[in-house]
Amino acid sequence: MASHVPEGYAPDRMRKYMAHFTSEAHLDGAKLGSTTDEERQARQREYTAVAKDYYDLVSPLYEQGWGQRFHYTPMAPGLSIDASMTEYEHEFARLAGLRAGMRVLDIGCGIGGPARTLARRVGCHIVGLNNNAWHIERGTALTKEAGLEELVSFVQGDLMKLPFDDATFDAVYVFEALCYAPDPAAAYGEVWRMLKPGGLFALTDWAMTDKFVEGNLHHRDVRNWIEFGNGITRMPRVAEMRAALAETGFEVLHEENMAYRSHPGPWYFGPAGDVRWATTWGDFWKVFTMSPAFLFVVNGVYRLLVLVGILPREVLALMDTMWYCCRSVAMGGQLDIFTPMYLFATRKPGADGDGKGKNKDKAGKGKGKGKGKGKGKENSG
């Protein structure tokens, strides 16, 4: 592993994260899938610790395997995963209404990949917030290397208790982070408090679509595996997000499942390990390392090394966690019961009118101008 991975990384951090889900030393997929509502509610009360321990565990692996931007992307024709991410972030900035000179909050900023892209593209001043100290340290270092420290800064804090005065920001955005909130309505309320009147709020986030059926045991298994594999205590549903935004008072300007823009390959070809859609040798290797064949061989090697005492047994649990991290989201995508990029672009009424924006895409009939299939409202939610 790279030099920024600490000593004792796998055993220490694996044990801390697993303790939120099981008291056993190994992972049992059947038990994870059949997690009860009571067990999920108990974890929701510890959402900060669960997310922190998860990202302490996986962040170095994310950066090595996926890059500095910890989010998925709709694939653009002929482009690599990294180039598709850049195009997606640029389109997100347009839909979010970000402009030069704005003071912007990035909630759940990771190590600052999207913040650096957007600051460079738009010229806005971005404050990245995260509850993980390692993310703040790493993001600050990478931002300094990029020469963007005058536009991008970082603050450690809780997304449910934002450490800023009321009406501090012109805009707030989120890339795949408010799914970690135990209560979406309360999280959106904190965003509302942060925004100036007329301020903009855009999020692209993980959610279960309306094709998810709570009574379907396989659907529940997949959701619970996604939660475990990604440090989430309570996955929201699209309808719940929509209702919570309305309850908070936000005016929805645009709504779209951005997963449907992925063309020609599906957004989940990476975590599915499907190398057929790779357009560069770099992507081929990145995706191949998540393929069933590669993971089968690596698991076999690691099991042998654990058996002879060279590696601690926690390494096997780490490998299993990464399997759930990748394969569960691919399963959810294939079933169309899950999306990691459901987008809402909204506005806090006030300042420049009555909050009835002229260019509003009606909730349920978003008229996205993006390329690809599935424009507008989520086909399944």
Which secondary structure elements does this structure contain, and how are they paired or packed?
Layout: H1 9-18, H2 29-33, H3 37-44, H4 47-65, H5 81-96, E1 103-107, H6 113-122, E2 125-130, H7 133-146, E3 152-156, E4 169-175, H8 184-194, E5 195-208, H9 217-230, H10 238-248, E6 251-257, H11 281-288, H12 292-307, H13 314-335, E7 338-347
Parallel strand pairs: 1-2, 1-4, 2-3, 4-5
Antiparallel strand pairs: 5-7, 6-7
List keywords for this structure.
disordered C terminus, 7-stranded mixed sheet, alpha/beta, 381 residues, globular
Shape: globular
Task: Assess the beta-strand content as a share of residues.
Answer: 5-15%
Instruction: Tell me, rounded to a whole number, the average pLDDT.
Output: 88
Distance between the termini: 40 Å
Class by helix and strand content?
alpha/beta
Can you list the strand order of the major beta sheet? 3-2-1-4-5-7-6
Number of DSSP E strands = 7
Largest sheet: 7 strands, mixed
Total helical elements: 13
Radius of gyration: 20 Å
User: Which regions have little confidence, pLDDT < 50, spanning 5+ residues?
Assistant: 353-381
Order of helices and strands: HHHHHEHEHEEHEHHEHHHE
What is the helical fraction, as a range of percent?
40-55%
